[in-house]
Each structure stands twice: as structure tokens, then as C-alpha cells.
Amino acid sequence: MVYDRFQHDLLKRAEIEFRECLLENIELFVDVVRSYRNEFDNEVFPIPEREMLRIKEHLQDDFRYRQLSRLFEHRDTLVRNFITFLARPAVNECPSYNGCAQLAIHDAIAIFFQKKKQCNAPTNHVVDISVHGEMAMVAQFITDMNVLLRNEPFPTGNGPATIRCYGADEVVDDKTYDRTQLFLL
Questions:
Q1: Rounded to an integer, what distance in angstroms lies between the CA atom of residue 113 and that of residue 129?
Q2: CA dist 6 to 2, 11, 121, Å?
Q3: How far apart are alpha carbons 19 and 83 in whole angstroms?
Q4: Over the stretch 61-83, which tens digit does the pLDDT of each residue have?
Q5: What phi, psi does 124 have (nearest 5°)?
Q6: Helix (H) or strand (E) holding 167
Q7: So where are the chain's domains?
């Protein structure tokens, strides 16, 4: 029982590290998606074996890839799922699980409206989010959010909301209490 739990924890940690490896090599996977973009319209897309071999050759020197060498079928499934996610992104398939940008925004909006209700403040549908974290990660998150939102209102349970993201370091004023705080780890 203890050994099984230990094995399970090791596998989960290896999966997380392997997903990081996939993200670090995202250009390789984006090339595959671009090459086969038309074929991703099907529900099930079999990634060609020559592409899988090319990916394996590229990743084989990485320790995180080799950690799953005894579970090569599972590793191949993770690679295929990652490529499919890039071709047809869906929140429930996000490799970051709860760290997915769309889920983070839903959480930030829920906090925003809860805070407004607690203060009996009018529920203005402009949500200002102050993003905290490592500078590069914050910049990437804000860029991703701008791409996701496309300057359009975001649908919420309280009606559409306009969302504006700011890096915590770039805003210095007395309105900090009005902003929803979002911390990237």
C-alpha cells in the first residue's frame, strides 16, 4: 500500500516534469500542428509515426523524457494529447489543469464579484486584475489574456464583464484595493 502510493506519487511527479519538457519544446509541437492543421478537423487525429519519431529524437536527451522510458505508451499518449490540445484547445484538456488562463480568469471574476457584494458596492462590470509574479510570467499571462479576450466582454454569471489586466509592478496608485489580485506561481 505504501509502496503503491509512493509509485503513484513518483509517476505524477514525472508526468508534471514531462509536461514542463513539452512546454519548453513547444515550437516543435507547433510545427506539427501547422503541418497537419487541415487534418485536425477530425475528432480523432492519428499523429503520423514519422512525426512521433521526430519528436522522440528531439526529446530523447532530456532527462524528463527518459524518466518515463518504461511507460513509453503513457509518454506517447501525453505527447499526442499535448499536440491535440494545441490543435484544438479546450479548458478541460489544458496541461496546466487549474493553472489554465481561462480558469484563472473565472476564479478572479468570482472573487471580484464576491468582494463587491461584501462591500455593498455597485457591481461595475469592469474587472481590473493586478497580476503578481515573476515579470516574464506576468507579461506572458497578460499577453495571453489579451489574445483570449480580444477586447470583448467576458461572459460571467453576473453578466458580461470587461477585463483589464495589469502587472502589479506597473501600477502605483491608490486604487489597489479596487483591483482583484491574481498571483501566478
A1: 12
A2: 6, 9, 49
A3: 12
A4: 999 999 988 888 999 999 988 88
A5: -65, 135
A6: strand 162-167
A7: 2-93, 97-183
